[in-house]
Amino acid sequence: MPLLLETDAQGMPVSLLGHLPKSTLAASVLTEQPEIVCLFLGPNAYISPDWVSKPDWAPTWNFVSLKISGQLVLDEALTDEAIRSLVAHMNGLTGANWDIAAMGERYTSLLKGITGFRIRISSVLPRFKVGQDENSVTYSEIYDALTGHALQDWMR
């Protein structure tokens, strides 16, 4: 589910903005139990023993992840803002200039089945397993094997 990060004046995360269908079980559960954990998986890859020169080295999985905890508040008044903000963000990433107005009355109709929400962030916990515990030779071998993979950028 796409979520937009909202930050304070110093760039610190304060909330996540999103929307979901009213008809989902999640919408009814979150009304009663608003505490939520969002898990984000970044670049990740299987790391093969074939890549390293240590004969007894075991395969593993390296990854970058983020755990955000908070309280979700469903708010129909946020629905239009959440959708418009997401469209503007995605248009910016892709270079598109599509406008919701092109949908005409269909947009108003679709809004009836969607509700916006904001998650007030209480904690942010990043986790990085990118070979940082390996010796320098093994680390370099893994790094070289990941040429062109996004995970390599996190190993720099």
TrEMBL record:
<protein>
    <recommendedName>
        <fullName>Transcriptional regulator</fullName>
    </recommendedName>
</protein>
<dbReference type="Pfam" id="PF04299">
    <property type="entry name" value="FMN_bind_2"/>
</dbReference>
<dbReference type="InterPro" id="IPR012349">
    <property type="entry name" value="Split_barrel_FMN-bd"/>
</dbReference>
<dbReference type="InterPro" id="IPR007396">
    <property type="entry name" value="TR_PAI2-type"/>
</dbReference>
